[in-house]
Amino acid sequence: MPRTMSVSDHIVVRTDPATLYARISDPTAMGRWSPENRGATVLGERRDAHVGMVFEGRNTRGPVTWVTRCTVTAADPGERFAFRVHAIGARRPRLRGPIATWEYRFEAVDGGATRVTETWTDDRRAWPDAVAGVFDRIVTRGQTFADFQRRNIRTTLERLKKAVEAEEEPAVG
């Protein structure tokens, strides 16, 4: 059976698109919401999100940790943020090649809220489906990456919503 190459989900957050974009486009903050990512280090001097920005993400799944190197491919404030993962390694991202693309789209909805859509795309196009399927089931403990990422995306979006809406709540008193 051919593998699913892309999955996405969305959630509505009570904040404006620019505010939500600012949170998500900071790769050092993603560890606050992601079930695997533990933050990132931006390489270079410029810290604001921009096309070409490179960062290294720290990740963990159970007892396994790894680092990825990523490059921002879209940085449109309040509209879209995307990056591709193109290197991976245990302590340093030494193994290079297309791995995945992550994208976030922001759409204003009624009441001053934003629908954010998170999409994961499998960039391992050169891998035969059978090889990818075996690899995926080993590293995800029995799942395809599409099913695994579908759950990760849902978790990330729910945590993001909870955190951002808690920050946006007016002080009572």
Describe the structure.
The protein has helices at 17-24, 129-139, 145-168, and strands at residues 6-13, 37-43, 54-61, 64-76, 80-89, 95-109, 113-122. The chain contains 3 helices and 7 strands; from the N terminus they run E-H-E-E-E-E-E-E-H-H. The mean pLDDT is 92. The chain is an alpha+beta fold and 173 residues long. Strand 3 (54-61) and strand 4 form a beta hairpin. It has a 7-stranded antiparallel sheet with strand order 1-7-6-5-4-3-2, with helices on one face. The longest helix is centred in the C-terminal third of the chain and has 24 residues, at 145-168.
Gyration radius, in Å:
16 Å
Assign an overall shape.
globular
List unreliable stretches of 5+ residues.
none
Relative strand content: 35-45%
How would you sum up the major sheet? 7 strands, antiparallel
Order the strands across the largest sheet as they lie in space: 1-7-6-5-4-3-2
Number of strands: 7
| Tally of contiguous helical segments | 3
Helicity level: 10-25%
Q: Label the structural class.
A: alpha+beta
Briefly summarize what is shown.
The chain has 173 residues and is of the alpha+beta class.
Name the descriptors.
alpha+beta; 7-stranded antiparallel β-sheet; 25% helix; globular
Describe how the helices and strands are arranged:
Layout (H helix, E strand, L loop, with lengths): L5 E8 L3 H8 L12 E7 L10 E8 L2 E13 L3 E10 L5 E15 L3 E10 L6 H11 L5 H24 L5
Antiparallel strand pairs: 1-7, 2-3, 3-4, 4-5, 5-6, 6-7
